[in-house]
Amino acid sequence: MALLNRLKRFRKPLGIWLRSNHPQLYHKLIRIPLINKLRLGQIMRLHVDGMFVISDTHVLICGWFRSPMTPVTRIIAIAPDGEHITLTDHCYRYPRTDLARQYGPFRMLNMQDEGFFCLFSSKRPQKTTQPWVMRVQNATLTKTAIALPLSYEPWKTRDAILDALVGEPGTFDTTVFQHHIHPAFEQLQQQMHAGFRIKRVLQYGRPNATPDVSLIIVLDASVDGNAQIDQIQHQSVQFARDPAIQQSDIIYVLNIGQHSEMLAQYSRMFADLYQLPFRVVTLSQPVETSTARMIGIMLARGRLLFWLSAHMLPVTTGWLAAMVAFYDATPTIGVLGAKLLYEDESLHHAGLFFSPLSDTVAIHHWEIKTSFQGLHRNLPRANIARQVPAIGTDCFMVAQKRYQEAGRSKTLYCTDEGDGIDLCLRLQTLGYTHWYYPDVVLYYLNDQIKPIQPNHRTYTEWLLSQTFAHEIATVMHNLEPTSTT
Amino acid sequence: MSTPLRVLYVCHNHPDLRPGGTEIYALALHHAMRATEMCDSLFLAQVGGLSIDPPMQRAGTRFSLIRAETHEYWFATHGRQWLSLYQIYRSQHGQQPLTNSFDEFLRAVQPDVVHFHHIMFLGYDLLWQTRMTLPHALICMTWHEYLAICHHNGQMIRKFNNALCDYADPQRCHRCFPEIAPVAFFRRKAFLQAHLSVVDRFFAPSRFLKDRYVNWGIPEQKIQHEPNGHVPSLPVNMQAPPQQVRNRFAFFGRVCRYKGIDVVLKAMRILIQNGTARKFKLRLSIFGSGLEMENEQFQDRVRVLLKQTRCCVTLHGRYHPDELPDLMQSVDWVVVPSIWWENAPLVIQESFMHRRPVICSDIGGMAEHVTHGVNGFHFQTGSAQSLAQTLTHAVSNAEQWEQLEAGIPAVRSIEEAALSMAQIYQRLCQHKQL
Question: How far is A402 from chain B (nearest CA, A)?
Answer without folding.
Answer: 34
